[in-house]
Write a structure and sequence with these properties.
The complex is a heterodimer of chains A (about 300) and B (about 140). Chain A has about 300 residues and is of the alpha/beta class. In chain A, about 65% of the residues lie in helices and about 15% in strands. Chain A has two domains: about 5-25 and about 255-290, ATP synthase, gamma subunit, helix hairpin domain (Helix Hairpins, Orthogonal Bundle), CATH 1.10.287.80; about 30-255, Pyruvate Kinase, Chain: A, domain 1, CATH 3.40.1380. Chain A has helices spanning about 5-60, 70, 95-110, 125-130, 150-165, 200-205, 210-215, 220-295; strands at about 80-85, 115-120, 135-140, 170-180, 185-195, 215-220. With about 140 residues, chain B is α+β, with helices and mostly antiparallel strands. The chains are: A alpha/beta (about 300), B alpha+beta (about 140). Chain A: Its main location: membrane.
């Protein structure tokens, strides 16, 4: 049976842990709100970019030749996975699920006889993937979006990816990230970014077919598309970073919320034991005094 | 001039401007073009330069952008730009310093791709200065 002093210390330590987790939950909640706002603000650009791309792609694909970013290299031998995780832990299953999915993809692609290269964003993902697939990780970024995620950070990642693509270091690139659904749920998403997949929705294409045919282009379609595709890649990377940042804060908030609650339960239980022990000690002392008095 | 064009300036981080205007002049990569209501739909790339927003015959706003894309339809003009600054917020001394810095970058560049990137940044900074001197000359 633990002594009274031990119990007291234990309660004090759990209480201070609870204070920390409660504070972290609050911080995560406010960061989550900011991340959500940012994701919201980035939406118009992505939407308009998508609209322009679709009308362009419809025009270009009809005459066969397109830029390499859209048509691909014609091979699928080397696959690049861009894994987006977080720099910090204590966010529940956030990094775990991402890494598990990444490993699953690596195993699947290698099973198909392909070479897999991994580019990681975030310290946690890098460390965990490096443990199982030390050779696969070709490049990693840390401290992305530490203060506030900016578009130029997404641009540096994209520049690196494009440089590798131009050098023929990979054929297909996909991004693996946590898509934000709600503070409680994040969905692990794998999205192919190179070659760019035109949302090949036949019906939708026909619906707006008339509209598209009307656009004039200056300079010609290929030229614009060649400029637009790298930008679009940046946007997609930026968006997945935003989604991931929001997911991270959401996951941390939920994790810290349950940690705070668990700490509360634990304090209750410990307090109960403490009080019982205290009573027992008092009773014992009384018995000792009484039996001592009787003996005289 | 009863009709107005819905002008939108969007950066990846947020929607910067969204307002109906009488006319906008956009620095397209193959020459400036003005957009009035009822313009035929087209898509163009943009070189670094200044967007002029007109209310009636008067310029009400001048915004410097460092390249991007424009999509024009009969009722709308959407500009996608990465960097946009109101011309009034640009500081001449700061821009001159930037040109100097970028010029050094070009000289320091080690590879061709690095040089090309540095040169395009220099071009943007030069266009900025041009925009400022142009504005004060008015």
């Amino acid at each position: 049976m633990p002594s009274l002093k031990d119990l007291k210390n234990r309660i004090a330590s759990v209480k201070s842990t609870q204070k920390i987790t409660a504070a972290m939950k609050m911080v995560a909640a406010s960061k989550l709100r900011r991340a959500q706002e940012q994701a919201e603000a980035g939406r118009p650009y992505a939407e308009r970019m998508g609209r322009m791309l679709e009308s362009l792609a419809a025009n270009v694909s009809s005459n066969g030749q397109g830029p390499k970013l859209m048509t691909g290299t014609g091979k699928q031998d080397v696959q690049l996975l861009i894994v987006i995780s977080s720099d910090r832990g204590l966010c529940g299953g956030f990094n775990g699920t991402i890494v598990r999915e990444a490993r699953r993809q690596i195993a699947r692609l290698e099973g198909e006889g392909k070479t897999v290269k991994v580019l990681t964003v975030g310290r946690k993902g890098r460390d965990q993937i490096r443990r199982t697939n030390p050779k696969a990780v070709v490049f990693s970024y840390e401290d992305i979006g530490r203060k506030r995620l900016s578009f130029s950070e997404a641009d540096t990642i994209t520049a690196k990816v494009l440089e590798m693509y131009e050098a023929g270091e990979f054929d297909v690139a996909s991004v693996i990230y946590n898509k934000f659904k709600s503070a409680m749920t994040q969905i692990v998403t794998v999205q192919q970014v190179i070659p760019f997949a035109v949302s090949g929705d036949e019906a939708a294409a026909q619906d707006s077919g008339e509209l598209k045919a009307m656009y004039e282009f200056e300079p010609d379609e290929e030229q614009i598309l060649a400029d637009l595709l790298p930008k679009n890649l940046s946007i997609q990377v930026y968006r997945s970073l935003l989604e991931s940042a929001a997911s991270e804060q959401g996951a941390r908030m939920t994790a810290m919320d349950s940690a705070t609650r668990n700490a509360g339960d634990m304090i209750n239980k410990l307090t109960l034991t403490y009080n019982r022990t205290r009573q027992a000690v008092i009773t014992k002392e009384l018995i000792e005094i009484i039996s001592g008095a009787e003996a005289i | 001039m009863a009709d107005k064009v819905e002008f939108e300036l969007v950066s990846p981080e947020k929607l910067l401007v969204s307002q109906p205007v009488d006319m906008v002049v956009v620095p397209g990569s193959e020459g400036n073009f003005g957009v009035l209501a009822g313009h035929s739909p087209f898509i163009s790339t943009i070189r670094p330069g200044v967007i002029d927003i007109f209310e009636g015959e008067r310029i009400v706003d001048r915004i410097f952008i460092a390249g991007g894309f424009a999509e024009v339809t009969e009722t709308r003009c959407t500009v996608l730009a990465e960097q946009a600054t109101n011309l009034n917020d640009l500081d001449r001394a700061a821009v001159e310093q930037e040109i100097k810095d970028r010029g050094e970058d070009v000289e320091d560049a080690k590879s061709d791709t690095e040089r090309a990137a540095a040169e395009s940044r220099l071009a943007i900074a030069r266009a900025k200065l041009e925009a400022i001197t142009g504005a004060t000359a008015h």
